[in-house]
Amino acid sequence: MILIFNVIENCKEFVKLVLRSDYILFDLYLTEIRIQYWSESIRFYIQDLQNMFKSLVYSSIKGININRYFTTLHGQLFTSQVHVANLTNGIRVATQETDSPLACTSLFVKTGSRFENACNNGITHFIEHMAYQGFNTLSKSNLQEYISSSGTKLTALTTREYQVFTAISSAEHAPECVNILIKLLIDLQLCDSDIELQKEYVYSEALDEDKNPKSVVFDYLNQTAFQGTPLAQSVIGPSSIRLTFDRNTLCDYIEKNYHPHRLLFVSSGCTSHLSNMCEINNRLGNLSPCVSECAADYAPKRFTGSSIIYRDDSMPYAHVALAVEVPGYDSSEYLPLFVASCLTGSWERTQGGTDRHGSPLARAVATSKLCEKFESFYIAYQDTGLWGIYFIGKRIGLDDMIYNIQDQWMQMCTTISKSDVQRAINVAKLKLANNRAGVIRSCYDIGLQLLHKPNWKSLGDLFNDINNLSHKEIKNLGHKYIYDKCPVLAAIGPTETLPDYNRLRAGMYWLRM
Question: What positions carry a catalytic annotation?
Fold first, then answer.
């Protein structure tokens, strides 16, 4: 009774807020509008009551640990909830229940080229191609028929540290999407004919990747930065190794790497956390946890300041990436470094503005025509990362562009101003908010956070952390990770005017009296 009384009192306060709001004043004489807002308020609080009772049900299930995270959208009386359940064998289930007509469910697996060796490099990406080729209890033709009839979209992505399988559908087909993702783990059909067919498809994909200069540059960047470690390996892998893959090789890798403690199910949209959790627990709860390899999940990393340049004068433009080593997702300095990457920002020739850009580097590039485009990047892995700038330029003037990039970095380490930091904070907020626009992006963002960190942070919490940053903290970060540090450089194309590595290294500090 006390709980119901509090709900009624909160509904009264909500009505007062609505009546005081500006956008309702011109329609106060319409009773229907007031009734509509009252009903919406009551509906929200009834949902809160239902969620409270759900939490009691969750806590009564043996062996499942429940956490709830709340975020309030700015300027709106709306509450979005993220439930996280930990099953006894290590599988985690996260759900964000919203009123969207869509439902997005993703399976995150902590595996990738970093978990591979020289003998099976590219096998995780190859499993991605085998994922939707049919199951033992559901043939490929029946799966395709269901996808086309229900309007479901299935996607997959493989990186160096994680793999994502995603199913996007309308709300009524969300349970079946969860069932399909579960089948990927326990019912995958690895037919010999499909394996040989996918080898040809992956070979065609590898050829397309080689024709993408940006993809090649960042592969080279990882190769030279983390040479001699698994992080240097490409995601697709070499063709010579791919030809040796067979059913036994794939099954052996899945058995050794797709362990429960590496699995994370994330759902966002019109879906039920209780039904998802119960279904996953019933189907996958019997998977035995593997504790012995938990501590040795990630291969060791080692950074080497170096450069790799592939000169090809037949290309019209040079593609260059310059970076330094920084911490990864698990560091408390991830968010400040993300803001620091927004200081330099991005620019391309189609933009106007010339000398009226906020970024000093953008002003220098626009007025002196140093390159065609540039963009800052922050490639964050679990325990390390690469922070730098990628640009495209003509053969003449590459050394001038490198000079301006390093000059901008030195300015950030020594004479950065409060206005520059505030501008970077605003850009960072926009990027973070854009990452959560819609159920699809929100599902990916939740999975990425929970994959690398134990807890999920709301957008409001991230904004609060960013607002507390000062220009002195950014300056200290610059001195710690940029000033007088060994950089890495990767470039392809007409690279005649690129400076050698000794000059690159000398540009990472200033000599002043």
Answer: 128
Rounded distance between C-alpha atoms, residue 374 and residue 376, angstroms: 7
Contacts of 382 (CB under 8 A, 6+ apart): 161, 298, 328, 329, 330, 452
Distance between CA 282 and CA 187 in Å, rounded?
Answer: 15
Beta strands in 373-487 (DSSP E): 373-380, 385-393
Please name the residue that has the structure tokens 């058995």.
255
**C-alpha distances in Å from residue 338, one per residue of 322, 328, 388, 462:** 16, 11, 11, 12
Give the tens place of pLDDT for each residue, 247-275.
999 999 999 999 999 999 999 999 999 99
Number of other residues whose CB lies within 10 A of the CB of residue 34: 16
Q: In angstroms, rounded to a whole number, what is the distance separating the alpha carbons of residues 119 and 242?
A: 9
Q: Which helix (H) or strand (E) holds 475?
A: helix 471-481
Distance CA 336, CA 145 (A): 47
Helix axes 471-481, 334-344, angle to 10 degrees: 90
- For 410-424, write each residue's pLDDT tens digit: 999 999 999 999 999
CB 127 within 8 A of CB 114: no
Confidence of residue 359 (pLDDT cuts 50, 70, 90): confident
pLDDT band at 357 (very low <50, low <70, confident <90, very high): confident
**Amino acid identity at 200:** E
How far apart CA 197 and CA 61 sit, in angstroms, is 45
**29 is written with which tokens?**
């004489």
